[in-house]
Amino acid sequence: MTSVNSAPGDLAAALRAATAALAGAGVPSPRADAELLAGHLLGVGRGRVAALALAGADAPEGLADLVAERCRRVPLQHLTGTAHFRRLELAVGPGVFVPRPETEGVAQLAIDRARSVVADRGRARVVDLGTGSGAIAASVASEVPGAAVVAVELSDLAAAWAERNLAPHGVELVRGDLRTALGDRDGTFDVVVSNPPYIPAGAVPQDPEVRDHDPHVALYGGGADGMEVPGAVERTAARLLVPGGYLVMEHAEVQAEAVAGLLRAAGRWDRIEGHRDLTGRDRATSGIRR
Questions:
Q1: Cβ(217)–Cβ(163) under 8 Å?
Q2: Which residue in 149, 174, 225, 283 has the most C-beta neighbors within 10 A?
Q3: Which GO terms describe its molecular function (predicted)?
């Protein structure tokens, strides 16, 4: 690998070397990652990194080490300790699923419904099943004044990250299995949102960042079709929601019909609707509790 510090003190040269090394390692966005890693060390954004490079600034100490880790396909977010999701900067690291841009649309659906409930009743009760880093729950709480948000998480490691991300937004974090959680609050929620594990057992992700670093408990949905946990989300949502309450669940593009069929077969849902992400992929399914 080309030494990132081949031109000591020269940020522009270090970024060129880092970009070449990352591209050689198959990183999808080598220049952006190089600038983000430098910005992390310098405490500035990407735009400022580019300006500093043009001005002949020094390269930050430690950049070569971070680039080497990224070349080994350690997720960028694990190296910087942060992930951006909608308006939020979340703390993330080993043991928690790194939130994806496509999930921002799922959060939007929950936010829109919660806003509607608040407009009608003055308050909305929302639960995020399998919150992971807390990305969806924190987004709803921060963007919907009047929403009382609960987040459920089973994993000890993920819950530790979620606690850091949720505390500033007043979200209640409940430790437990989404299958059985909140048994004392059946029929009290207006919105249930979930990005559950849904990958089929045999569909191992190709990206090393996902395959080797995201926790398996957050990836694989159980069973050959990956639908065991999504099925549990449907049953828990039916139990927790008030009549007329709203469920929205993320899934893989190829599972859109299976999830819609799951809701239809349960006989508990009206207005079952599919939703596409910004790339046009079938990303989520919603329904209204009868």
A1: no
A2: 149
A3: peptide chain release factor N(5)-glutamine methyltransferase activity
Q: Annotation-wise, does 198 bind a ligand?
A: yes
Rounded Cα gap, residues 179 and 33, in angstroms: 38
139 annotated as ligand-binding? no
Same domain, 199 and 111: yes
- Residue 198 three-state SS: coil
| Same domain (yes/no): 168, 235 | yes
196 annotated to bind ligand = yes
pLDDT tens readout for residues 105-127: 999 999 999 999 999 999 999 99
The distance between the two most distant Cα atoms of the chain, rounded to a whole number of Å, is 67
pLDDT higher than threshold 80 for residue 218: no
Evaluate whether 11 touches 39 at the Cβ level (below 8 Å). Answer: no
Q: What is the pLDDT of residue 1?
A: 41
pLDDT digits (tens, 9 = 90+) for 151-181: 999 999 999 999 999 999 999 999 999 999 9
Rg (CA), the chain: 21
Burial of 204 (0-12, 13-18, 19+ CB in 10 A): exposed
- CATH at 233: 3.40.50.150
Lay out the sheet containing 269-276: strands in order across.
172-175, 147-153, 124-129, 189-194, 241-250, 282-289, 269-276
pLDDT of residue 3: 46
